[in-house]
Write a structure and sequence with these properties.
The complex is a heterodimer of chains A (about 230) and B (about 900).
Chain A (H helix, E strand, L loop, with lengths): L6 E5 L3 H13 L3 E5 L2 H8 L5 E5 L7 H9 L6 E5 L4 H9 L4 E4 L4 H20 L5 E4 L2 E4 L4 E4 L2 E3 L3 H12 L4 E3 H8 L8 H15 L9 E4 L3 E4 L3
Parallel strand pairs in A: 1-2, 1-3, 3-4, 4-5
Antiparallel strand pairs in A: 6-7, 7-8, 8-9, 10-12, 11-12
Chain B lengths: L7 H16 L3 E6 L6 H14 L4 E5 L6 H7 L3 E2 L3 E5 L2 E5 L2 H7 L3 E4 L15 H10 L3 E7 L7 H8 L9 H5 L3 E4 L4 H9 L13 H4 L2 H29 L11 E6 L5 H15 L2 E8 L8 H16 L3 E6 L3 H11 L4 E5 L5 H7 L2 H8 L4 E5 L3 H4 L12 H21 L5 H19 L1 H18 L13 H49 L3 H16 L1 E8 L5 E2 L9 H13 L3 E2 L11 E6 L4 E9 L9 H66 L4 H32 L7 E3 L1 H12 L8 E4 L7 E3 L1 H18 L6 E8 L2 E8 L29 H11 L3 E6 L5 E8 L23 H4 L5
Parallel strand pairs in B: 1-7, 1-8, 2-3, 2-6, 6-7, 9-10, 9-12, 10-11, 12-13, 20-22
Antiparallel strand pairs in B: 4-5, 14-15, 14-18, 16-17, 17-18, 19-21, 22-23, 23-25, 24-25
Helix pairs in contact in B: 2-3, 11-12, 13-15, 17-18, 17-19, 18-19, 18-20, 19-20, 20-21, 20-23, 21-23, 23-24, 24-27, 25-26, 26-27
Classes of the chains: A alpha/beta (about 230), B alpha/beta (about 900).
Chain lengths: ~230, ~900
């Protein structure tokens, strides 16, 4: 890769978490920049890091507010760190433009996986290069021909099911909140009609997953949204 | 606004009427012009029809009077037993209100609405019983004859010559939901009467020949028909009004009727009421208390009070004013209240007096300007019932003092007589009269005047020591002296009276002011109550108590010196519930020794004011006193309500503060415990990557234990939230399958060693639940199963609809539950095994979450070994609609069949 190592800015008030993140990230070939407060973090973000990891529980400013301020001027990817019991704040932050989230405590593997997905998406947006064929496991979606295969068998999807699937593919690996999905597939007027989402997602699972009750790819994240799991 | 010139207050009235209509029972009146037209028969007929339709009909009170046709209709109907009321050895069978309320049918038949109950009944009149039935939401059928309508009472007496004592207020008739006119031609009725088919009450039998005359019957029939037609007309107007049929809004008429002790006042009130009704006008009934009315006999005073009460019942606003000149007071009142018509009676004074002093009607016409004056003629016979004056407390001492005063004047005059003229002596006597008048009132001063003349004549006019006199011009002197004495006496007495009236008004105002001032200073409920009791007790000269619902619906007196018997408490509770006064001095349960007034505040009735008069002998309280008492009660009610509101808002404030503190504590504990754990787990996770051998094992232990600690903290936090009521349930329509799937994802590697089979019907509808919380329950149940079963042991998870509920099941093939432990496993800190595992909170949290969803959770042993945990959630309504796609579903049949897709995971 000709590019230098990606720069990751961590905004987190707990020194112990920053220390372990520094070790983990530098070990895996990332450059590490840290900030202990929202104020310093917003300042550091102006130096164009490749990714921001943001703790929601900062002492000086609401994490949601930090996301909003960042999204005011940049599209750089943001991963938020939260603890259980902050579901509504988490969803608000995602709706406000954060790319993904991790719930403390999390493993290094999870963190690295999220970082990879988010960075890949950021690269895609820059290059505008969508591959015409998406594959995961034995699923194959030909986006140019509008064909969906599971193994060798072609699966027929209704227009909305197909749109739902392609939306998930566009965000593959990342979480999408209910509201975002509804907006993208059904339009803004439906952004609170979650029943549509659940009904169509069930249909899609029944058509694509081999056991819809124990899905491998079309994942529901309780209280947050859906994720197309790709690895 | 549907109509620009509609009157807002009228809209409110119709709104209230509609609102009341939804809760109250409906009243249907079978209305006739005389006994025997067939009201009871028609009523029973209608009731039988309803019964055939399956309506719960009960006969509350019907007297068939032995008529065969009527009795035939009673056959097969449920009849409520009557209540025996024994009074002075006469047993009367009365309608049993309490039994009717307890039975609570959909429809009840109660004959003869105008009936007067035996004394000792809950209400004086049957129409009051019926009101209570309606309020309880029971529909009532009843019967009524036109002569029992209050406002037509005197008219009917005029027509028939029979005095009807049993009347009902017109409002009852007007507010009836339905009135059915039962008609029979007078000839047919007379025929029936001759055939003895008409029942006539015994006590009225003397009047029967009078009553059942064709002329009477025709007139009564016309009246009844007009009443019914008026009602239809009113309904029509209401309809037009409700449906915004445009009609110009007339400037509202206001009618004023003047009430005096004259016996035709009741007639005036009824006339004014009819006029007000016809004009849809507001109306006022005013009594002017002139100085002399204080000397009226008690009978007359009671009559005024009764007439005012009658006006009140007919919907007037009643007021008592005091003043010397009736016409001036009336005009002042009329102007200040924008009155457009005044109704007065024709004076019953002899013509010479009218010519000399004028009459009220005459004065009004002269002075009033643009207001119409209606003079209603009195009935001569009635007018002969004369006004009685009272001298009930003859001031003997005053007369004695009058004699002494004149004797003293005489003595003084004797002393000065040699030096002064007779004129000066006259002045001295006049001074004596003035003093007596000012000091002892009218009677003694008139006596003093007479005595003065006699003493003057006897002692000073020559020849002295004799009542004879030589000089004729002394006749004039005597005459003027007497006249002057009487005039001075009268004027002084008037001033005294006005002073007394002013003092009384002042006392009322002062009492009100004192109460409101003291109430405004108090904040605690207890202080307010004590203050109010003291004030009311002083003003009304009674023992007062404030009864509050404590516990709700149970009235109790906090004052140990004012304790209630069981009966009294029942009355207090009735008053509280109905918001109407009862007990001593009222119409309801007048036999009781306590007067109960509801304490009506701005939003609701908050309690009852009990008042026990010091001397029970005083039979009635005057309308002014009652008014004052009501005002005091409402002041008190508002103050107590204010105290309640303050209390409530303080409680709410504390609660909000507690909630805020608790949430802050929970989130900080959650944050402060989880952050170090996250650092430990993360750091250990980073280390493990490059490690092999025993060091790897050790680091693995660190991560696993950190993970366990994390779950423990989560359980503890969940438990705290549940127990403190801080758990918020956010329900959404969710697919059960998605939640089960998400739980498997979250368990991830921990589920690796257990094959799981799921059974969820493909057509499972969406369920209303909090997905995060129910996910937590499934997670805890699965973790529990993992903990207590060996690896490779299979598990089954299923969701289905069963018995109108959603049933979730998590079943394992472990060692099962020890018998007797099925309930205990959900207890806090209960652990089936002491090694490993959690602290025994997981299942307790599950139970809490399910309870917050109004569901049920239980555990049992599974057939063939193992345990099964089941929980149900109620199905709350239909899931919201999901519209089908507009394109046709041609590919549906080609898609993967649902059943196939639903196979168990290998």
């Amino acid at each position: 890769m000709p590019n230098p190592d990606p720069v990751i800015l961590v905004i987190e008030d707990e020194a112990s978490i920053r220390r372990f993140l520094r070790t983990a990230l530098t070990n895996h070939g990332y450059q590490f920049v840290e900030a202990a407060t929202a104020k310093d973090g917003l300042e550091a973000a102006t130096h164009q890091p490749d990714l921001v990891i943001l703790d929601l529980g900062l002492p000086d400013l609401d994490g949601l507010e930090v996301v909003r301020q960042l999204r005011g001027w940049t599209t750089l990817p943001i991963i938020i760190l939260s603890v259980r019991g902050q579901e509504s704040v988490k969803v608000s932050a995602l709706d406000a433009g954060a790319d993904d989230y991790l719930t403390k405590p999390f493993s290094v593997e999870e963190l690295l996986a999220r970082i990879r997905v988010v960075l890949r998406h950021a690269a895609h947006i820059e290059q505008k290069a969508d591959e015409p064929i998406f594959t995961v496991d034995d699923w194959k979606v030909d986006l140019s021909k509008r064909q969906v295969f599971v193994g060798e068998r072609e699966i027929h999807l209704t227009p909305i099911e197909y749109k739902l699937l392609t939306t998930l593919i566009r965000y593959a690996g990342k979480v999408i909140t209910h509201r975002q999905l509804l907006k993208e597939v059904w339009g803004s007027a439906y952004s609170n009609e979650t029943q549509y989402l659940h009904v169509y997602m069930t249909r899609l699972r029944h058509k694509l997953e081999c056991d819809p009750a124990q899905p491998r790819h079309l994942m529901l994240e309780l209280g947050v949204g859906y994720r197309l799991k790709v690895d | 606004m549907k109509n620009d010139n509609s009157n807002p207050s009228e809209s409110l009235v119709s709104l209230n009427a509609n609102e009341a209509g939804t809760r109250r029972g409906k009243l249907k009146i079978f209305f006739g012009y005389a006994a025997g037209v067939g009201k009871t028969y028609a009523m029973l007929d209608a009731a039988r029809m309803h019964k055939a339709e399956g309506v719960d009909v009960v006969i509350g009170y019907i007297d068939s009077h032995g008529r065969v046709e009527t009795e035939a209709l009673l056959d097969g109907m449920e009849i409520l037993p009557r209540r025996d009321s024994t009074d002075q050895d006469i047993t009367q069978h009365e309608f049993d209100l309490d039994a009717a309320l307890a039975r609570h049918p959909a429809l009840i038949l109660v004959d003869d609405l105008a009936h007067t109950n035996a004394s000792g009944s809950a209400h004086a009149k049957r129409w009051q019983d019926v009101q209570e039935l309606l309020e309880a939401g029971i529909n009532v059928y009843t019967s009524l004859n036109v002569q029992h309508l209050e406002s037509l009472n005197d008219l009917i007496t005029q027509i028939t010559g029979v005095v009807i004592r049993e009347t009902i207020p017109d409002t009852v008739f007007e507010q009836a939901d339905e009135v059915e006119l039962i008609d029979l031609a007078p000839d047919d009725l007379l025929q029936r009467f001759k055939e003895d088919k008409v029942y006539v009450p015994e006590d009225a039998s003397y009047a029967v020949p009078h009553f059942f005359r064709k002329g009477n019957l025709i007139a009564l029939r016309e009246l009844a028909m007009r009443c019914a037609a008026d009602r239809v007309d009113t309904q029509m107007q209401d309809y037009r009004h409700d449906h915004a049929v445009s009609r110009p809004w007339l400037a509202t008429e206001r009618i004023l009727v003047c009430i005096s002790q004259a016996p035709d006042s009741a007639r005036l009130v009824r006339a004014a009421h009819r006029m007000a009704k016809a004009l849809h006008a507001e109306w006022f009934a005013v009594h002017i208390e002139a100085p002399e009315s204080l000397r009226l006999a008690k009978d007359n005073r009671d009559y005024v009070a009764q007439t005012l009460h009658l006006a009140d019942q007919l919907g007037a606003e009643t007021t008592t004013l005091s003043g010397n000149n009736v016409s001036e007071e009336l005009i002042a009142f009329a102007h200040s209240h924008n009155v457009s018509r005044i109704v007065v009676g024709k004076s019953s004074h002899p013509r010479w007096r009218q010519a000399l002093f004028g009459s009220i009607a005459g004065e009004l016409v002269q002075k009033i300007g643009r207001i119409e004056v209606h003079v209603i003629t009195g009935d001569r016979e009635e007018a002969e019932r004369s006004t009685n004056w009272t001298f009930d407390s003859i001031n003997w001492l005053g007369y004695f003092w009058a004699v002494i005063a004149i004797a003293f004047c005489t003595f003084l005059s004797k002393l000065i007589a040699p030096y002064f003229s007779l004129t000066d002596i006259v002045i001295l006597y006049l001074l004596g009269i003035v003093i007596v008048a000012a000091w002892q009132g009218l009677g003694p001063s008139i006596l003093a005047s007479a005595f003065s003349v006699l003493a003057f004549d006897f002692f000073f006019v020559p020849p002295t020591s004799s009542f004879t006199f030589y000089d004729q011009h002394f006749v004039v002197t005597f005459g003027f002296m007497l006249l002057l004495g009487i005039m001075i006496s009268t004027l002084t007495a008037q001033i005294r009276h006005q002073a007394r009236a002013a003092r009384q008004r002042e006392q009322h105002t002062a009492a009100l002011y004192a109460l409101s001032r003291d109430l405004a200073r108090m904040w605690s409920k207890q202080e307010l109550i004590e203050m109010a009791i003291r004030h009311i007790g002083q003003v009304m000269e009674c023992q007062a108590a404030i009864l509050l619902p404590d516990p709700p619906e149970r009235m109790s007196s906090p004052d140990p010196s004012f304790q209630l018997t069981v009966n009294e408490r029942a009355i207090a509770e009735w008053v509280y519930e109905h918001g109407q006064a009862a007990g001593w001095g009222t119409e309801t349960l007048a036999d009781d020794k306590i007067l109960y007034l509801p304490l009506v505040a701005s939003r609701r009735t908050i309690g009852v004011l009990g008042m026990r008069p010091r001397q029970i002998s005083s039979p009635l309280i005057s309308p002014e006193q009652f008014h004052l008492l009501e005002t005091l009660a409402s002041q008190t009610a508002l103050a107590i309500e204010r105290a309640y509101l303050v209390e409530e808002s303080q409680k709410a404030k504390v609660q909000i503060e507690t909630e805020r503190m608790r949430n802050a504590l929970l989130s900080s504990v959650s944050h402060d415990l989880k952050t170090p754990l996250a650092a430990i787990a993360g750091a250990a996770g980073s280390l493990i990557e490059d490690e092999v051998g025993p060091r790897r094992e050790l680091i693995l232990t660190i991560t696993e234990e950190a993970d366990r600690l994390n779950r423990l903290i989560s359980d503890l936090l969940d438990m705290t939230r549940l127990e403190s009521g801080a758990l918020q349930v956010r329900k959404e329509w969710q697919a059960a399958e998605g939640i089960v799937g998400a739980t498997f994802t979250r368990l991830g590697a921990r589920l690796r060693d257990h094959p799981v089979t799921t059974h969820i019907p493909a057509d499972m509808p969406l369920v209303l639940l909090d997905s995060v919380l129910i996910g937590q329950v499934l997670m805890n149940l699965l973790e529990n199963a993992i903990k207590y079963t060996p690896s490779d042991s299979p598990m089954d998870v299923s969701v289905n609809i069963s018995g109108g509920q959603v049933l979730f099941q998590v079943a394992d093939r472990g060692s099962g539950i020890r018998s007797g432990d099925e309930e205990r496993v959900f207890d806090k800190f209960y652990r089936a095994r002491t090694d490993g595992g959690g602290v025994g909170l997981g299942l307790t949290v599950c139970r809490g979450i399910i309870a917050a969803h109004s569901g049920r959770i239980w555990a049992k042993n599974r057939e063939g070994g193992g345990a099964v945990f089941q929980f149900t959630l109620p199905i709350e309504g239909e899931p919201p609609e999901v519209k089908a796609e507009e394109t046709e579903w041609s590919e549906k049949s080609e898609g993967i069949p649902m059943e196939e897709a639903h196979n168990a995971k290998p």
